[in-house]
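FORM 7B: Structural annotation worksheet

SECTION A. Query
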Amino acid sequence: MIHTPRLRSLEARHAELEQRIAAEGGRPRPDDERIARLKREKLALKEEMERLRRQK
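SECTION B. Predicted structure
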């Protein structure tokens, strides 16, 4: 698999969002709107990563 700097950056951001989602979900009273927003952002990153991978 070819890893461009942009793809590596997206992967790092994706992993960071995953951690933030898990942290928010682990709180006694998680903020559902925040979780939904983070998940949408994570999905957008995943789609961009897949697009970059298909181009290679």
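SECTION C. Observations
The chain has one domain: 5-55. The helical segments are 5-25, 32-55.

SECTION D. Sign-off
Analyst initials: ____
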